[in-house]
Each structure stands twice: as structure tokens, then as C-alpha cells.
Amino acid sequence: MTTAHPSSQDPGLLLAEVEHPHEQALAVLDDPAQNSLAAVTWAAAHLAAVEKVLHPLACRTLPDGRDRVRAQVAVDHRLQLVLWQLDRRLTGDVHLQNVPVQSLEDGVRRALQAHALREHAMVEALREVLPPEQQQDLVDRLAKALMQGPTRPHPDTRHGRFAGGVAFWFDGVVDRLRDSMDSRSVPTPHRTPVPRPVTRWGAYALGAPWDRPATRGRADGAPPS
């Protein structure tokens, strides 16, 4: 069972925003009734979001930011690899059919905990130097990236600045298309599509009746005919 996403009234909001996906992924892994693909989605989406939003800021802001990010990326790559293996095992990859699912889940749990420990230190360092308004902006950007980015692990792709931004967008679009085609549940926050009115030709193509939309009153104030 997932918990509510942290609200803007929570103390330590930045830390809560970053650690929320960790908690959700671990909760899924600890619950035998849940499909571990949900943990893969939480962790993979989070990794892409922090690489796009958090890492560039840490490089610019912290005195040792580049060293921190370099070490974080190495830890995160190991997590991406084991997430990819678990994803493939659960979706029927014949090359991994002899690998116990429990072994891969344990590997994800260990790698996720190592990732969270190092990331926690980075976020605490950022909280010491960023004013509240910048922290709130960072929270908003992380939430948006989590909503729009990839939902599957991509161990061989970087989602940081420059070309990585294009990869982030492309992988996000492709992953969500695959999720839809596979009828795969996506537990992370996502945009709700806004329904559009059916046009006359759209109704014709669907073989459905078309309701003519109401028109505005005439210029003389009379009701539409």
C-alpha cells in the first residue's frame, strides 16, 4: 500500500520529496502481495528525476558537488543494473529465467539502500546552502520530473544536462507508451489526460452519434436556434 505524497506543508519538504520514492519502492519489496514491478517503476523514475534535476544543481552549488555526484552516479548505475535485471526477469526474459526473483529483489533492496544513504547526505548538504524558496523550487521540479520522465530502468543512458535532457524526454515518452501497450500499472504520479470533445469526423470514424455542441447566442441576444 502506498502512502500520500508529501505536501507543501511538511517540514523538511525537500528531504521528504527525495526519500518518498525510496520508501515506496522498499514498501513494495517488503509486501509479498504486491508486484515488484511497482518497486522498479518507483526507483527507476526517481533515478531519472534526480539525475536531471538534483545532480546538476549539486555540481553548481556544493564545493565538492562534482565529486559527490560522480560517486552518486557510480552507486546509481549499480542500482539501475539490478533494476533492469529484475524488470527483465519479471517480464519473461529467457536469459534470466533461472535467476531467483527473491535474489534479484534482495539485490535491488541493498542497492537502493546504498543509493539512499549517499543521496541523503547530498540533500542535507544542499539544504544547508539553499534558501527556502530555492528548496521549494527544487521540490517542484523534482515532482514534475518524476511525473514526466522514464518509468523503466535505463542503465546505459544518462538523463542529466544537455543531450541527457533529450534522452529523459524520449525515454519518458517511450516508456509510458510501452506501459500503456503492456497494460502495466504505473504507481508514480502521472498526468491525467484531459478528454477532448469528439468532432463530427471523429464520431463518423467511430460509428458513433455526434452531438452538435451548443453555440453561443446571436449578437442580438437571441438564443441559438
DSSP helix fraction? 55-70%
* Count of individual beta strands: 0
Question: Roughly how many Å apart are the termini?
Answer: 54 Å
Q: Give the amount of beta strand, in percent.
A: under 5%
State the shape.
globular
- Sheet having the most strands: none
Number of helices: 7
What's the mean pLDDT score? 86
- In the residues, how many domains can be counted? 1
Query: Over the alpha carbons, how many angstroms does the gyration radius reach?
Result: 22 Å
Structural class: mainly alpha
> How are helices and strands ordered from N to C?
HHHHHHH
Low-confidence regions: 1-11
Describe this structure as you would to a colleague.
This is Hemerythrin-like domain-containing protein. There is one protein chain. The protein is mainly α and 225 residues long. The protein has one domain (13-181). It contains 7 helices and no strands. The protein has helices at 13-29, 37-61, 65-90, 101-129, 132-148, 163-181, 200-206.
Question: Strands, helices and their partners?
Answer:
Layout: H1 13-29, H2 37-61, H3 65-90, H4 101-129, H5 132-148, H6 163-181, H7 200-206
Helix pairs in contact: 1-2, 1-4, 1-5, 2-3, 2-5, 3-4
Protein name: Hemerythrin-like domain-containing protein
Organism: uncultured Frankineae bacterium
